[in-house]
Write a structure and sequence with these properties.
Elements (H helix, E strand, L loop, with lengths): L1 E6 L6 H13 L6 E6 L2 H6 L6 H15 L4 E6 L14 H6 L5 E5 L8 H14 L5 E6 L2 H9 L5 E3 L13 H8 L5 E6 L8 H7 L7 E6 L10 H11 L6 E3 L5 H10 L2 E2 L1
Parallel strand pairs: 1-2, 1-3, 3-4, 4-5, 5-6, 7-8, 7-10, 8-9
Helix pairs in contact: 7-10
């Protein structure tokens, strides 16, 4: 089987990392040939391409044409790959209309946040997206996403939990703590890009109820494509927090540092 994998690829992105491991596993299967079609504004920016609705529309058209050579298209989806939730900006329907090959979509994000007309608009769009003629099935990596797809009316959803990757080197927790300089503090670590949908405010509200020796670590930074003011707003909240000395933001972490924080953590949030 020839699979066209449409995804973020080899950039600072969790989906890119997930896809790299998935492609490696699929290529171990007999008679399975995977061709990666790198996609999304973050990829195109790294390649030095121009960004903007017209240019990205052209890139998606070209990708759809290349994908037609496959027996199956597997799309790794997050809204920012296609321009977010603005109806005239989002290029997902444009891309799907140009696919005639059966398509499976791994949905990494369902966003039902917001109030008023923004919330209504998000739900309306997400109810329409996956009824495209080419889409045969949806995959969710966790129950949270699967349940929200069900709320939107999708029945053809398979839950395939994300695997735990094997570490080439498993850091010793004590050595990791020494390296990170956190001593014997009670360590709560939240991994991932810092964005509104992750609800970091709840962590700030929880901090006064945790032991005084707690260090709460936000292990990540703003997403390169996040155009909202959420990250600077959250940094201001942290700066004004009465327990700000117990809060630490790492910024984007390379893999070896992720391993160290994971080994050192008492709780992963």
């Amino acid at each position: 089987m020839r699979i066209a994998m449409v995804s973020s690829w080899r950039v600072a992105c969790g989906i890119a990392r997930y896809t790299e491991e998935l492609v490696g596993a699929l290529q171990q299967l007999p008679d399975c040939q995977v061709t990666v079609l790198p996609a999304g504004p973050q990829v195109w920016r790294e390649e030095g391409r121009r960004l903007g609705w017209w240019w990205e529309r052209t890139y998606w058209r070209i990708l759809a044409r290349h994908a037609q050579d496959a027996d199956l298209v597997h799309l790794q989806f997050a809204p920012h790959f296609f321009g977010g939730f603005r109806p005239l900006r989002n290029l997902l329907p444009f891309f799907l209309r140009r696919l005639t090959v059966p398509t499976v979509v791994t949905v990494h994000e369902v966003d039902l946040t917001g109030k008023g007309w923004k919330a209504v608009l998000k739900r309306w769009q997400q109810r329409r997206w996956w009824h495209a003629r080419c889409v045969r099935h949806l995959i969710a990596l966790n129950r949270f996403v699967a349940d929200r797809l069900a709320q939107l009316g999708y029945s053809q959803v398979t839950l395939i939990p994300m695997w735990v990757p094997e570490l080439a080197h498993r850091p010793d927790p004590k050595a990791a703590r020494e390296r990170l300089g956190v001593g014997e503090r009670f360590l709560v670590v939240a991994f991932g890009f810092i964005g509104a949908r992750r609800g970091y405010e709840l962590l700030l509200q929880a901090l006064p109820h945790l032991p005084k020796e707690t260090l709460m670590v936000l292990a990540g930074g703003p997403h390169p494509l996040d155009r909202s003011d959420y990250y600077p707003r959250l940094m201001r909240q942290i700066a004004e927090h009465p327990q700000r000395h117990q809060l630490y933001v790492t910024g984007f972490l390379p893999d070896e540092e992720v391993d160290s924080w994971l080994a050192a953590a008492d709780v992963v949030a």
